[in-house]
Structure formats: structure tokens, C-alpha cells
Amino acid sequence: MPNMVLTKLLNQFKHGGFGSKIVFFFGEISVTVKDSLYNMKAHGQDKKPDSQAKKALIVDDESDICFLLSNILKQANIQPVMAGSITEAEKVLESPQAFRYVFLDNYLPDGLGINQIKKWKERFPSIHLIMITAHDSHEERKKAKVDGVDHFIPKPFSKDIILNTIVATPD
């Protein structure tokens, strides 16, 4: 599954769908795409975190959502990093990169994103966790809020909703 998502995203980048740089994480492999060229590196090797750039982790297994969110975030000068599952997201969050935002889908291949909110907020208190899901119910909103989610956005969403959420997030 991650290879299919990666292939679709790389094709979008090749055809001008992304800006100048984007980073994907799939298991133990990180892929950095820059100016239509890409390099695969073993997770954790040759990393030099850019402390100046704001970074956002997108945790979603749908390539179209990753693509859409990536483009929106890049317009706001936020570097997107993608993970297609909870397991991949855990590895990325443990990396030396500092994430300001985590956009979290609920229904992922290896579990429910909503069950990660409390755990991630305790381990990474400075992240702004934004739940994005097509399954928008009162119960899910309530659980997410109690567990510490900063924002809850139903799918489909618009560019303005994402940008307003980012602007509404305190420094």
C-alpha cells in the first residue's frame, strides 16, 4: 500500500503538483523529493533538521488527501511530511524532526487515529494535533476533545478551513 501512495505522490510532484521539496516516510525509508529529483535514505541517516521551517506530519492512507493537504501547507510555508499508518507516524514522531502540527485521519490501516490523541499529546505536548476525518460524529468529537485534540475538521474540507486552523493555532 505505501508504495502505491508514494508512486502517486511522486507522479504528482513530477507534474508540478508540489512546490520545491516534500518528504515522505514509509516504514524505515524516508524519501525526500526536491526539484523533481528524489533520494531514498534509510530512516535516521544523514538527517539535518531545519529548525527554521515549521513542519507538519500528515497521517493519512489516502493519497489524494495527502496531496491536497501538502499543497495547502506548502502555500503557508509549512513543510509536509507524510505517514500512511499509525506505525509509520510513530517512527516519524520519534525522529529528530520537530513537528508543529499533526494532521491525523481516524480510520487508518493499523487502527483508529482517535486512539492516538491522548498518547501523542502526552509524549509530544508542543504539537498541535488536528483530527481530519470523514466520520464526524458527536461521540468522536467529544472523545477527541477530551483526549486533547486541538482542532477537529470533517472531510471534505476546504483550503480556507485548513489555513484558518493553522492561523488560529497559538505560537
How would you concisely characterize the structure shown here?
With 171 residues, this protein is α/β, with parallel strands linked by helices. The chain has six helices and ten strands.
What's the CATH architecture of the domain at 52-168? 3-Layer(aba) Sandwich
Radius of gyration: 15 Å
State the strand order across the main sheet.
3-2-1-5-4-6-9-10
Structural class: alpha/beta
The CATH C-level class name of the domain at 52-168:
Alpha Beta
How many E-type strands?
Answer: 10
Main beta-sheet annotation: 8 strands, mixed
Describe the global form.
globular
The H-and-E topology, N to C, reads as: HEEEEHEHEEEHEHEH
How would you name the CATH homologous superfamily of the domain at 52-168?
Response regulator
**CATH fold topology of the domain at 52-168:** Rossmann fold
Strand content: 25-35%
Mean pLDDT: 80
- Please report the number of helical segments: 6
The multimeric state of the shown protein is single chain
Q: Please estimate the helix content.
A: 25-40%
